[in-house]
Write a structure and sequence with these properties.
The complex is a heterodimer of chains A (268) and B (407). A 13-stranded antiparallel beta sheet of chain A has the order 6-5-4-3-2-1-13-12-11-10-9-8-7. Chain A contains 2 helices and 13 strands, in the order αββββββαβββββββ. The longest helix of chain A has 41 residues, at 2-42. Chain A is an alpha+beta fold and 268 residues long. Chain B has 407 residues and is mostly beta strands. Chain B has one helix at residues 7-17, and strands spanning 29-42, 57-71, 76-87, 95-106, 110-117, 150-159, 162-169, 196-197, 207-216, 219-229, 234-239, 245-251, 253-265, 268-279, 281-299, 303-314, 327-336, 344-352, 358-367, 372-382, 398-406. In chain B, the strands form 2 sheets. Chain B has an 18-stranded antiparallel β-barrel. Chain B has a 3-stranded mixed beta sheet with strand order 8-12-11, with no helix packed on it. In chain B, 37% of the residues are buried. The chains are: A alpha+beta (268), B mainly beta (407).
């Protein structure tokens, strides 16, 4: 009996220790993941505003392509408890020319979104619940297009590995906001500049859904890196969307009044 | 062709835009776009009035180019959007309009628009109660969503607590109506040449409007007041120059205060519009209220299904213009496929709770290629009574198809 009790005590102690170290390791990995993401976020602080021109190329299973061109304006909101404001204005296809899409991103609350329909000159407030829905028929979901804010995810460092010519931190991120289409994202950050190089998205059944790869990085104002070539592949449908930027201008002096419900009527 | 637009006004606007001494700057950015469309209306039932053309098949052509010139790095914008339709079967429906001819100057926290422009107010889908700045282009469609260009000066102030717009509307546009030969008219055609007005200034009575619109978290709120010539005419009976009986529009001076609210919670959009109007017989109030709930990703790969319901009540009596929304219930389904071609369907039915008359509307649109779109509308009504403004057009169920080329 005594030996049994002793054994049990020893087993318990060993188990607790393992659990403790496991918990400790988990905490360390979470801390390391957050540290990496915090550095990624810090390196983008103070960009002010950007005005980007881009083409979105949609490709279906049969490799039929259709292109839409658009401009995206982003206004940085310095408060880390609030998201940035963004405005997407369409140039083609021609029938949607002038259509504008305004988002006030929030961290945990639902985003505020408005759509401007130029034919009727009507601004409609729309539901932002549809985070996992496709953005203009593409493989990018609304949540992929909206600003990535530090506090929108929890982080867990998984490992380091080489990614192309670079070394990468591999971090698991789980959305903390409601209505995400993802259980998790695996994000590759390069260790030299803390740029996101690749993201694997896992769907609600935890199956691999999409992969986004970033290429053609260019540095702005000697500080801010932007990818000019983003490719999203949907592994489940075989469809692809490529986002090709033709220009990204920084600190162009965008005004807060452009990012208002009435401001989007005159968006250019 | 009718071209009832003050050419003097256009000249004033153009000279206002191209101010003396202003040379078109080297940084001027021109852009030309627009569309050309072929329309086909099909009226399966026989005409009701002998002087109407049968119009079983009614083809027409539409042109709407849009020219914009951006100056001073986008701080100034000149827009010109003429619109024309040629309809071989109804001379009143063949018409030309200036939808937009305006100069917009954007300051920091304020802007001003001078010229002809279009302004939309409101939130509900099946009735546009508070939308009053622009006159309805009645020959275009029966849904009241097509508008004529309105001459205006619109001063906007954008503040953290919301936006305020002051409108001065120096010239009034008369509503367009289907001619004697056309389908979709009342039993007696409208004669716009004899229109009468409360104001001795007639179309030159300066109308004014003030609107506040703001966003408070989930709430989008608009409050407005309009003073001037009411956009909805009353009708008197009369005779035209050839002795045939006609309806003559009379335009009253009205005061209208309005409120429109939308609350956006999760997948729910809760909407309401209200007006209080005086100047057309007894004062009256009217309200539209309803919701839209969307089931996201319910249909096919990523299609959304929206369910809409709206209730309309209008307290006006027979001294005010007749309305089809006195006590009506609307129910609708909106299907948005979220596909590459932006395919949408909207089916709605409006039921009059007193007369039980029903109007069904089906709208579909999709993109065929980068430049081509196709859309269709089906409008069917049943059980209309004399209390309904569309009673005279009860034989005019129709299908409308449009093929548009955008450039």
């Amino acid at each position: 009996m005594k030996t049994h009790t002793l054994l049990r005590a020893a087993l318990f102690a060993a188990l607790s220790f393992t659990t403790l170290t496991a918990v400790q390791a988990e905490t360390d990995r979470a801390a390391k993941g957050l540290e990496i993401a915090t550095e990624w976020d810090r390196r983008d602080l103070g960009f002010g505003d950007t005005h980007a021109k881009m083409n979105m190329v949609l490709e279906n299973r049969n490799a039929d392509q259709s292109t839409r061109s658009m401009r995206m304006k982003i206004l940085e909101v310095p408060d880390s408890n609030e998201g940035d404001k963004s405005l997407v204005i369409f140039d083609t296809p021609r029938d949607v020319k002038g259509t504008a899409f305004l988002t006030w991103a929030h961290i945990l609350d639902p985003d505020d979104q408005w759509l401007y329909l130029p034919a009727l000159k009507r601004v409609k407030r729309i539901s932002s619940k549809n985070k996992s829905g496709p953005f203009v028929g593409s493989e990018f979901a609304y949540e992929d297009m909206s600003a990535q804010e530090l506090k929108k995810y929890t982080y867990l460092w998984l490992r380091n590995e080489t990614c192309g010519d670079l070394e990468c931190f591999v971090v698991e991120q789980k959305p903390t906001y409601k209505n995400s289409g993802y259980t998790k994202m695996i994000v590759w950050y390069d260790s030299s500049e803390y740029r996101q190089q690749k993201i694997d998205y896992y769907d609600r059944k935890d199956d691999l859904l999409k992969t986004l790869t970033f290429a053609d990085f260019r540095q702005h104002l000697n500080k801010y890196w932007r990818s000019y070539d983003m490719r999203m592949v949907n592994h489940q449908t075989g469809k692809k969307t490529q986002l090709l930027f033709t220009s990204i201008d920084f600190q162009t002096g965008l005004k807060k009044s452009e990012f208002t419900k009435n401001g989007i009527k005159r968006a250019r | 062709m009718q071209l009832r637009f003050s050419s003097a006004l256009i000249v004033t606007i153009i000279s206002g835009i191209l101010m003396p001494g202003t040379t078109v700057a080297a940084d001027a950015d021109f852009s030309l776009s627009g569309f050309a469309a072929a329309d086909l209306r099909v009226f399966p039932r026989d005409r009701r009035y002998d002087d109407q053309r049968e119009q079983t098949f009614n083809p027409s052509m539409v042109l709407q180019p849009e020219l914009t010139v951006e100056l001073h790095g986008g701080d100034d914008l000149i827009s010109f959007t003429p619109y024309g339709r040629i309809d071989g079967q109804d001379s009143e429906r063949s018409h030309f309009d200036v939808r937009e001819l305006s100069w917009l100057h954007i300051g920091d926290g304020w802007d001003v628009t001078a010229g002809v422009d279009k302004v939309y107010w409101g939130v509900t889908e099946s009735r546009h109660l508070v939308d009053i700045i622009n006159q309805t282009d009645g020959v275009e469609d029966v849904d009241g969503e097509e508008k004529l260009g309105q001459p205006m000066i619109n001063l906007g102030l954008q503040q953290d607590w919301g936006d305020v717009n002051l409108f001065v509307l120096p010239y009034f546009r008369e509503r367009t109506f289907t001619g004697r030969n056309g389908r979709l008219r009342g039993s007696t055609p409208v004669d716009n040449d004899q229109s009468t007005y409360d104001s001795r200034l007639k179309q030159r009575h300066p109308d004014i409007a003030l609107r506040y619109s703001g966003v408070i978290d989930e709430w989008d709120i608009g409050i407005a007041h309009f003073y001037g010539t009411g956009r909805e005419p009353r009708f008197k009976t009369g005779t035209d120059s050839s002795g045939q009986s006609v309806l003559v529009p009379h335009y009253d001076i009205i005061n209208q205060t309005s409120l429109d609210i939308q609350a956006t919670f999760d997948a729910w959009l809760l909407k309401s519009e209200m007006i209080y109007r005086s100047g057309q017989g007894k004062d009256f109030a009217a309200i539209s209220a309803g919701f839209e709930y969307t089931f996201f990703g319910l249909v096919g790969e990523a299609g959304d299904l929206g369910v809409l319901a709206e209730y309309h009540y209008d307290g006006r009596d027979s001294t005010a213009p007749l309305t089809g929304f006195d006590n009506d219930l609307f129910a609708g389904l909106r299907l948005t496929l979220n596909d590459v071609n932006d395919t949408d369907f909207l089916v709605g039915i409006l039921v009059d709770r007193i007369t039980q008359s029903r109007s069904l509307s089906v709208e579909v649109d999709t993109r065929l290629s980068d430049n081509l779109t196709l859309d269709g509308q089906l409008r069917i009504s049943d059980g209309l009574t004399e209390k309904d403004p569309a009673f005279g057009a009860r034989s005019d169920n129709h299908l409308q198809l449009r093929l548009s080329y955008y450039y």
